[in-house]
User: What shape does this take?
Amino acid sequence: MPTVEQARAWYPDYDPVHGFDHILRVLRMAERLAQAEGGDLEIVRAAVLLHDASGAETGGEKRSEHQYHSAEFAKKILEAEGWPPERIAAVQHCIRAHRFRGDEAPQTLEAKILFDADKLDVIGAFGVARTIAYDVVMGWPFYAEASDRFRLTGVKVEDETHSSYHEFLFKLGKIKDRLHTQTARQLAEGRQKFLNAYFEQLDAEARGEI
Amino acid sequence: MPTVEQARAWYPDYDPVHGFDHILRVLRMAERLAQAEGGDLEIVRAAVLLHDASGAETGGEKRSEHQYHSAEFAKKILEAEGWPPERIAAVQHCIRAHRFRGDEAPQTLEAKILFDADKLDVIGAFGVARTIAYDVVMGWPFYAEASDRFRLTGVKVEDETHSSYHEFLFKLGKIKDRLHTQTARQLAEGRQKFLNAYFEQLDAEARGEI
Assistant: This one.
């Protein structure tokens, strides 16, 4: 089993969105979900520690495929530790299936737990902070007015500027409904409300309403 | 009178904390305060457009003295426009007195309006976003546990990590009480509550309480 100290070396010294503090929060949450929902804790832990370990750097070119790079990296690490092939495959499935915009959906309880724990860290106060931090790394503004077309279809009109507020409308405002486990959905209630209230306040301040 | 378009050129293309979108929000707020409180609108506007125009870059070396650099810059700009010396001096006073950690306190209504409008942009949802963005530029974490000594005195214990949460405890949580005009204090009520609720949620999530 890879240790937390071993995992620290796989992550950059500073990445405000996908750095090691994110991994530690997801680990604690995944353990909490597994305690309530069941699942193989060793597989859950290994999957959490390895899920962003290769190609996930914020703003990096490989980000859109980091689930595959990290699953390959996991295989090497776990083979070197002498894990049996079927347990390595189980960890790899969790990692490949952890993305909101991914091709592979979580099939096992362990994969659902990683997905849910990871998504709970994009809502709530840390979710707000990570969304804003992503903006800063990408050079986007916090807020830009969203067109009616974007609100309805997720497709921007010509010259429409991207912003955190757009990320909220497209993805972040509906995370709760995408979660798999009952325990995570319950925990998500308060965090989703908090995140949505944040972006409603941002919108109202930007419009000069309050 | 310097125009908004002219002022745009004095600010960097992208600065998430002290960029031109901050100037535009402060301008709108200062006009709103002046409408309710009175004051010379031409002086208020010139002071807003020029208050961060020299040395205010986030993370820059001159930041701690940007009020003096910007006041000098303002003098040059307004002299070139043929402003009379006493009106230039009035704008310069506003600029020198706009900082929370400054030596010069606002004496005139116009200086109080700039101070208050600027501080309203560090609380509320934009305040949260700018605080988080400052962290990212400086390479600080969003959250680190605060010692009892820091909570009581604002002085850290050895090895205590700085974070947004520390900025909240030291400065941001009490902005409302530092404002000068009645109108700004009223507007600050909701924004201060919002900001404080944000950092309380961040703290609770970090501790795994919710």
The interface with chain B takes residues 14, 16, 21, 25, 28, 32, 124-126, 128-129, 132-133, 135-137, 139, 141-143, 164, 187, 190-191, 194, 198-199, 201-202, 205-206, 208, 210 of chain A (CB under 8 Å). Chain A has a mean pLDDT of 95. Residues 150 and 156 of chain A are 5 Å apart (CA to CA). Residues 122-210 of chain A form a domain with the Methane Monooxygenase Hydroxylase; Chain G, domain 1 fold (CATH 1.20.58.1910).
